[in-house]
Amino acid sequence: MPSPEPSAPVPASPTPGGGGPSTAHSEPSAPGPAGPTPGGGGPSTAHSDPLVLAVNPGSTSTKLGLFTGREPLWSVTLPIDDVVLAEFRGRPIADQLELRTAACERALADRGVTPRSLAAVVGRGGLLPPLASGTYRVTARLLADLEAHERGEHASNLGAMIAARIAGGAGCEAFIVDPVSVDEWEPPARLSGLAGLDRPVLSHALNTKAIAKRYAADAGRPYAELRLVVIHLGSGTTVSAHRDGRMVDASNAREEGPFSMERAGGVPVLKLAELATTPGMTFAELERRLFREGGVFSYLGTRDLREVLVRVEAGDAEAALVLEALLYQTAKEAGAMAAVLEGRVDAVLLTGGMVHSSFVAHSLTRRLQWIAPVRVYPGEDELRALAEGVLRVLHGEEVALAYPG
Fold first, then answer.
1. Is 311:324 a contact under the CB 8 Å cutoff?
2. Is the pLDDT reported for residue 313 higher than 80?
3. pLDDT tens digits along 178-214
4. Deepest in the core among 21, 78, 133, 219, taking most CB within 10 A?
5. How far is 288 from 297, CA to CA, in rounded Å?
6. What's the pLDDT tens digit per position in 22-64?
7. What is the pTM assigned to this prediction?
8. Mean of the pLDDT values across residues 299-323?
9. Which of 238, 236, 256, 255 is nearest to 247 (CA)?
10. Contact 104/64 with Cβ under 8 angstroms?
């Protein structure tokens, strides 16, 4: 587990960029029970705890992890070649289902894991209608809503689809946990200032709530008793306020809040209206510029924080200004969330791939430590969060929620 101390050294190199690794990369796992990699023995393998496969699709890769209990046996990143990915540009994200499912099945076979040995498969939840926090069984209606993508296209929409495919062959159930549409907001947070345009509730709920609960365990206090500001910094940024065990407000990384590596965040409304009515501008083009080619990419032409840091160190004034503005806006949004909590904040938590950078972590700590003690949890431990959600259901600690419809 990452050290929660802000003064602990934070590696500066690994930061999410645009391309992902060029070959499948197995990640080190926490020590698990002794014994061979589980294979074809059915659910009663050498491991007493059930085997859970977690699937987290990203824009350029799919992360896969096999868990027994709450410890990972292994995890792997399955990249998609840029040439192959180019064939899917402009097509529905669901068109990638066969490609990604096949890659996951090969990864299982390469490690001697037969589908029938799995107790459950869990995928990252996508852009679904507003839902309560929790673990959901994947149903035909849930899959249909993801395929219809009425709330938008995103790689996370594939999580439940891949999980359902693999679970179908394994004879087990498929689940999702804390999708990006988790909605625990209170009524005043929903109004935008223009009738008929309420703020959409979309956030990095999975990692954000998992880190909040992990801090609660580290602090020896129930999550429901804490008041927290949690900042997730990845390709998109979510800044959220947590109170009474609920995420009561959060910036929507798709269209408000601070800009990030590839997302524009909140932009001047009238200037955006002018851009939207430019001759030849389409909704798809505008969405691409705001959501995939905004933020740092729009200024510097890169989505890779490592490259930005190298340029800053080399004396690139524009790169320094853009990074400073990103951190400035992030800290300003955190201050707003502290106001949501009426200034009574137990801790500010930094998480996501960007806080692997000691520069980012220390800069935000300096700006935010006046609010409350700052704790740093680098990376996105979403595979573990997915597995933990399903294990709580399998162990009877929680009841799986019913997807509406």
1. no
2. yes
3. 999 999 999 999 999 999 999 999 999 999 999 999 9
4. 78
5. 12
6. 334 444 443 333 333 343 333 333 446 899 999 999 888 899 9
7. 0.82
8. 97
9. 238
10. yes
Q: Are 124 and 386 in contact (CB under 8 A)?
A: yes
- Distance (Å, whole) CA 17 – CA 24: 16
Per-position b or e across 324-339, b if 16+ CB within 10 A of its CB: eebbebbbebbeebbe
The reported pLDDT for the residue numbered 82 is 83
Spatial CA neighbour of 199 closest among 254, 128, 273:
254
Average pLDDT rounded to a whole number, residues 288-300 = 94
Rounded mean pLDDT of the chain? 88
In the CATH hierarchy, which top-level class contains the domain 1-181+382-405? Answer: alpha beta
Q: What are phi and psi of 375, to 5 degrees?
A: -125, 140
32-42 burial, b for 16+ CB within 10 Å, e for fewer? beeeeebeeee
Joined tokens for residue 34 = 């002794």
CA distance 55 to 264: 28
CB 175 within 8 A of CB 125: no
Q: Which CATH superfamily is domain 203-372 in?
A: ATPase, nucleotide binding domain (3.30.420.40)
Distances (CA, A) of 194 to 106, 199, 269, 357: 50, 10, 12, 38
161: Cα within 13 Å, side-chain hemisphere? 27
Residue predicted with more confidence, 354 or 379: 354
Question: Which token pair is 131?
Answer: 């839902």
Q: Report the alpha-carbon distance of residue 6 to residue 279 in Å, rounded.
A: 49
Measured between alpha carbons, how far is 126 from 128 in angstroms, rounded to an integer? Answer: 6
Residues of the chain within CATH 3.30.420.40 domain(s) are: 1-181+382-405, 203-372
Beta carbons within 8 Å of 37's beta carbon, 6+ residues apart: 73, 74, 111, 112, 113
> For residue 71, how many C-alpha atoms fall within 13 Å in the half-sphere facing its CB?
11
Residue with tokens 């001697």: 112
